[in-house]
Amino acid sequence: MAGMLVWAAAGCSSVVEGAAEPASGQEGLFDPCKDIPDSVLEEVGLDPATEEVDIEGVEQPGWKICSWTEPWYYLIIYSNRFTVDDAKKNPDYTGFEEISLNERRGVQYHRASDVRIDKCYIALEAKQGSIWIVVDTKGIAEQKGSTCGLASEYAHTLLGALPR
What we know:
The chain is built from five helices and seven strands, in the order H-H-H-E-E-E-H-E-E-E-E-H. The chain is α+β, with helices and mostly antiparallel strands. The chain has a seven-stranded antiparallel sheet with strand order 1-2-3-7-6-5-4.
């Protein structure tokens, strides 16, 4: 048995050279983890050390995702090719409110199944499609404020760091 394990382990020792390829559909997308400077995060009260890339480190095709941890919620920025109108057409979302930030069109909304609005989305138009600013309550944590109010605050304060 030990000989089989050595042989099996030896068969897995190949080295792959070169740079990792991004997940399909990510080419040219704004990358919130790389493109928002730590100094900007600190200015809006976020701790850059809490940054998490993608979803538990796994790239999602067509998306660039970055999140930061706060005591009772996560701030998540999704970068994608979907338009604001695409989000409005998605039946999983409801409660759409048109917004304008410095003459930039956007929409605030939440999941249809989320009656407490534990997770609030703001999608802003961008040349690439849209940028979503999301505040999501941690698990069963008690909300200490409005997730939509926080998402709106972050959208306003981070606007200068987000692509048009």
